[in-house]
Amino acid sequence: MKYYILFGPPGAGKGTQAGAISKKYNLKHISTGEMLRAEIAAGTELGRQAKELIDAGNLVPDSVVEGMIENTFNSNKDVAGFLLDGFPRTVGQAADLDQMLALRGEKVNAVISIMIKDQTIIERIQHRAEIEGRADDANVETIKNRIATYHKQTEPLITYYKNAGKYHEIDGECGDIEAVRKEMLRVFRGIDKLLERQVVIDNALLDNVQMLAHESPRLRMNYDLRNSEDDQSQRMLNVMLPGTKTAIHRHNYSTETIMLLRGQMDTVFYNDKGVEKERIHMGGDTGVLGVNIPKGQWHTFEVIDLSIIFMAQDGPWSPLSKENML
Ligand code: AMP
Question: Does domain 204-324 have CATH number 3.90.1150.10?
Fold first, then answer.
């Protein structure tokens, strides 16, 4: 499970932006403010107790919000993760969250903060009051107290998460809602890659994949460079040790591009009868860095020295059918 925190002062646009992000990444959006408003609307005892505090712009007790958070974690097992909005709101709540997650063998993955100026907070909240009719948006004194509560109790979380190396900030006033959304998606993509350690393709990564290939009975190892199964392309690193056997095969739906990152190998083309018609030496002092294997071209690889290639092809991976192997 991934645990992301959407951070920012009241009115920064957290709720507005949460929808697109949670949908794209299959995250359960948890807004403690919304949950509390639902309790008030349903007239529950919890709602009755929370209303007074919320209307005054104060925080409700930790035990109340933490109970709601834990229940939501427990009742959502089918999501990729959670997008927390409005929680944690104090360093105490952040520490409790860390503890709650540690007990589940999990941790906060990243904090995405949307920042706006105090004056913008007031303008945005007053505008929202006209649209959504939230009681705590309508009164200027309540708004001012919420801003004060934010600075005093919530803002210290920035340092807390910066120290943990999890803090990512975007400018909530960089443009309209769409512009902020684009910026958020850009930050999310970066975080996602970072979490998967795919942002840089360097020698350390090649060394790791190479080590896994040595341990594999197939003498080869693929390293998927896509960030999600929804990505309908094939982009991977492929380590092949000498002795790797690849059947003569063809891809009828896409050209295959191969770039050699390490080693020496041949790409061999065949005609329909399995007779070799062209051999392309790659690596060493050949000056050949890669090949484009045309759609439908029968081919195989012969590994001379341990080789690592980058391979790209259109369309999702599927096992080769009989008619595509010689
Ligand atoms: P929000 O919709 O996030 O602006 O929250 C509205 C109000 O709900 C806040 O002003 C608080 O009174 C209360 N609230 C929401 N989340 C929390 C939390 N994590 N801790 C304490 N109070 C909260």
Answer: no
